[in-house]
Design brief:
With 404 residues, the chain is α/β, with parallel strands linked by helices. The protein has two domains: 5-154 and 296-373, Response regulator (Rossmann fold, 3-Layer(aba) Sandwich), CATH 3.40.50; 156-285 and 383-403, Response regulator (Rossmann fold, 3-Layer(aba) Sandwich), CATH 3.40.50.2300. Helix content is 36%, strand content 16%. The strands form three sheets. It has a five-stranded mixed sheet with strand order 1-3-2-4-5, sandwiched between helices. A four-stranded parallel sheet has the order 7-6-8-9, with helices on both faces. Strands 10, 11, 12 and 13 form a four-stranded antiparallel sheet that branches. Helix 2 packs parallel to helix 3 (113-126) and helix 4 (156-170) crosses helix 5 (184-197).
């Protein structure tokens, strides 16, 4: 079996920490040597969700950038990234490899709801920090049941609640069709919409699912059109999201189209779908859009563009996945900085759950990162936006779970 392996080293650019005392017993700490801190992840460089592979490449590049700028207590970060093809059994295999063979100090930014679901129990039994998973499933905030696993992006349930409230305001009593991926990722959106519609859910909503192994979602969309829905909510990863946008246009169907925030990349979704085909689609964001001219002179996005040009020049600057990778890694670097000279798994987890009003160069204005031992949802805010054929137009206020 072919395995993709990326090994790069990195460290924080800001606030360098003095060299470690000679008495530090690095050999006794998993994933820590006198010169390195090992972090690992799995991500789909191949398979039905391979559009997300750029996130792993951008993370590796960001660690390389940090490596050239400093260290943590004299240590660099070695990042080990394996391809899991978005296949849960392969994720299990590769994660065991990271923990039992590579002996990483922590897992970082493992991507995908079904894939993380396959390893979460094992990782928590091993008491390995499972940090900032790249999925918004609401369960990654369950600090009681899985104390070693923490999310990062806004919860899919919260996102769905925001969409449902918007739909209620725009089209009261609308018939809503939801196309969703048949796993915890997709089902979280059903829960969020039900939270808002309550008893009216069964009357107003028609839901159809697809499997990640399906070739297309054409039949599902035809069934929703036949059900005469007024609002289409597409809860899909990039490949199927692009298919949905194209097929709806081919069908000359004109529902109010709401699209999950995980598939709004201009480069990976909107351009492949045909930019004109998506005009009017509603979604949400918490990161700055690299195609939006409003950020041309933004300091944080200038920092990101400089990074892309020097460390990941082959990466697509229209792909929001590369922005999210930068944001995720910036958060991880802050955690390592807070660790001081203690890189034990327990302290890494402690610092990851003690982030206070942390600003991030590529988050939307007004959004900050906060965690605590009882708050495992670091980013809790988002803003609605509409596709205009070239980029996403933000509108309304920054919203959070408290508003829904």
């Amino acid at each position: 079996m072919t395995r993709r392996r990326t090994l790069l080293t990195g460290a924080a650019a800001a606030g360098l920490i003095p060299a470690a005392p000679a008495i530090l017993r690095a050999a006794e700490l998993p994933g820590v040597t006198a010169t390195e801190i090992m972090l690992g992840n799995t991500i789909p460089y191949s398979g039905p969700a391979s559009a997300y592979g750029t996130i792993g490449k951008a993370i590796a590049a960001r660690f390389k950038m940090a490596n050239e700028e400093g260290s943590f207590a004299g240590r660099k970060v070695k990042f080990i990234s394996y391809d899991d093809g978005y296949s849960p059994p392969k994720t299990v295999e590769q994660t065991r490899r990271l923990i039992e063979e590579d002996k990483v100090a922590a897992l970082f930014a493992d991507l995908g709801t079904p894939t993380n679901s396959a390893i979460v129990r094992y990782v928590n039994q091993k008491k390995v920090p499972h940090l900032f998973v790249a999925t918004g499933a609401d369960k990654w905030g369950n600090y009681k049941e899985t104390p070693w696993t923490i999310g990062w992006q806004p919860s899919y349930v919260t996102e769905a609640q925001v969409y449902a409230k918007y739909i209620q305001a725009q089209k009261p009593n609308a018939k809503i069709g939801i196309l969703y991926q048949n796993d915890d990722f997709g089902k979280d959106y059903l829960h969020g919409v039900r939270d808002v519609l309550k008893g009216a859910y069964d009357k107003q909503v028609t839901q159809v699912s697809y499997e990640v192994t399906d070739a297309t979602i054409d039949s599902q969309l035809l069934s929703l059109q036949s059900a005469a829905v007024d609002v289409l909510m597409t809860v899909a990863t990039p490949k199927f999201a692009a298919q949905s946008i194209r097929k709806v246009a081919e069908m000359n169907w004109k529902p109010l189209h709401v699209l999950t925030g995980v598939s709004v990349s201009v480069g990976a979704v909107m351009i492949p779908a045909g930019p004109a085909n998506g005009v009017g689609i509603i979604s949400s964001a918490y990161l700055k859009d690299p195609t939006d001219s409003r950020w041309d002179n933004d300091a944080g996005m200038k920092q990101w563009r400089t990074f892309m040009a020097k460390y990941y020049p082959e990466g697509d600057v229209k792909d929001g996945g590369n922005v999210s990778a930068f944001a995720l890694t910036d958060t991880m670097l802050h955690v390592l900085k807070q660790c001081g000279n203690d890189f034990s798994r327990a302290n890494i987890m402690k610092q990851a759950t003690n982030l206070k009003d942390l600003e991030n160069p590529v988050l939307l204005p007004g959004i900050k990162i906060n965690t605590s031992p009882t708050n495992y949802h670091p980013v809790r805010q988002l803003q609605l936006m509409r596709w205009n054929g070239k980029t996403w137009d933000l509108f309304g206020e920054v919203l959070s779970g408290a508003n829904v």
